[in-house]
Design goal:
4-stranded mixed β-sheet; about 20% helix; 7 strands; about 130 residues; about 35% strand; 3-stranded antiparallel β-sheet; OB fold (Dihydrolipoamide Acetyltransferase, E2P); alpha+beta
Length: about 130
Amino acid sequence: PELPDFLSGLITVRGEVIPLLDLRRRFGIQSSLKKERIVVVWCDSEKIGLLVDEIKEIISLTNEDVIGPPSIFKGLKRRYLTGIGRKDDRIIILLNIDDLLTSEEKIMLKESEGIFDKDEESKKTT
């Protein structure tokens, strides 16, 4: 009940319970009717799942392909960006995964995972 509204739930990946975040809700964007995909990433030293609209492809960028966030992204929104990538004729927004959550949100999620871990342990011992 006290968790952020962009937390869609918890999922189990290879036996590990991880939080699932809805990026659209996180950024205040209306939900999509498209089928969503889950991308598992590291946020600080914890795994999280991110609900995304689609995954077109995986590409590699060099340092020369990336520039800092433009000045149009000021204040709070800018903290979510690592930079802007350029590949061929495409522009790719690079998210700063470690700053998707505030310190307080990270603590709340960690505590909620602990609760679920304890529930699973109690089921195994009974």
